[in-house]
Amino acid sequence: MQKAESIKKKVMPSGDAFASSCNACKQCTPLGACIAFKGIEGVLPMLHGSQGCATYIRRYLISHFREPVDIASSNFSEETTIFGGNKNFNTGIDNIIKQYHPRVIAIASTCLSETIGEDVQRLIYEYQETHNWMPDLPVMIFASTPSYQGTHSEGFHEAVFAAVKTLAEAFGPVGDHINLFSNMISPEDIRHLKEIVEDFSIPAMLFPDYSDTLDNTSWDSYRRIPDGGTTVDELKRSAQAYASVELGYILNSGGMNGRIKDNGTKQSAGEYLKNKFDVPLVRTGLPVGILESDKFFNSLSSISGKAIPVKYQRQRGRLVDLYIDGHKYVSDKRAVIYGEEDLVVALAAFAAEIGIKPVLCASGGESGKLAETLRKVLGKNYYEDMVVGQGMSFERMEEVMQELKPDLMIGNSKGYYIARKMDIPIVRTGFPIHDRIGAQHSHMLGYEGTMILFEQIVNTLLEDKQRKSPVGYKYM
Amino acid sequence: MTDNGLYGFKAEMRSMQIQSITKRQDKITPKQKSMAEYLEGRENQIVTKGVDSHELVGGKPSVAGSVSQRACVFCGSRVVLYPIADALHLVHGPIGCASYTWDIRGALSSGPELHRSSFSTDLREKNIVFGGQDKLYQALHELIDKHHPKAAFVYSTCIVGVIGDDVQSVCKRVQKEKDIPVIAVMAEGFQGSKKDGYKIACDALFSLVGTDESMEVSPLSINILGDFNLAGELWMLEEYYKKMGIQILAPITGDGRVQKVQNAHRAALNVVQCSGSMIHLAKLMKEKYGIPFIKVSYFGIEDMSDALYEVAKFFKDDSVMDKARELVKDQLTTLIPALEPYKRALQGKKAAIYVGGAFKAISLVKALRLIGMKTVIAGTQTGNTEDYRLLKTICDDGCIMVDDSNPVELSEFVKQTGADLFIGGVKERPIAYKLGIGFCDHNHERKLALAGYDGMLNFAKEVYETVTSPVWQFVNKNKE
Ligand code: SF4
Ligand code: SF4
Question: What's the ipTM?
Answer without folding.
Answer: 0.91
